Amino acid sequence: MHERGGPYWLTRWGRTAGGLDIWTIEIPGGDPIRLEHLVLDINGTLTNRGELIDGVAERLERLAGDLALHIVTADTLGTANALGDRLGVSVTIIRTGADKAAFVRRIGAWGTVAIGNGRNDGAMLRASRLGIAILGPEGASGLTLGAADVVCRSITDALDLLLDRRALSSTIRA
């Protein structure tokens, strides 16, 4: 815990059973957020029409030391497994948004941040402790924007927000 009067963005660290760090982000006026997992959609989130968006791989590599990374996708374009291999991220193929939400609950919704843009991402964002919708080059579902705790202009903006926990705390403060 941070000392009284200390900076609100001070982050406590712990370890999961698997050895990953647990991020605890102090939120002024709210409960702290403890994150262990990052769950990502592919189409329209990590990729633009099937091509990985510039800067994503480097940011995910930085986050991989602190969070367990997961891709959940309907794999509309059939590129998920190859992209998962390229990024070193586990891939789970699902059918529906309800399947994405069930995945989040299975790994521990309270310790999960999820990022997506499509209509089938809304339930996943609602189920997660922290849901981030992105308005990327393929647009975003209005329902998903309404389900999000935070909305970012792009996937790189969303990942940068996770990398700068002080800015994240400022964005979601109560």
Provide a concise account of the structure shown:
The chain is of the alpha/beta class and 174 residues long. It has a single domain (37-164), classed as HAD superfamily/HAD-like (Rossmann fold, 3-Layer(aba) Sandwich).
Name the features.
single chain, globular, 33% helix, three-stranded antiparallel beta sheet, 174 residues, alpha/beta, disordered N terminus, six-stranded parallel beta sheet, Rossmann fold
Count of the separate structural domains? 1
From the alpha-carbon coordinates, what is the Rg to the nearest angstrom?
Answer: 15 Å
CATH architecture: 3-Layer(aba) Sandwich
* Contiguous runs where pLDDT drops below 50 for at least 5 residues: 1-19
CATH superfamily, please?
A: HAD superfamily/HAD-like
Major sheet attributes: 6 strands, parallel
Q: Within the largest sheet, what's the order of strands?
A: 8-7-4-9-10-11
Helix vs. strand class: alpha/beta
Task: From the 3D structure, determine the CATH topology.
Answer: Rossmann fold
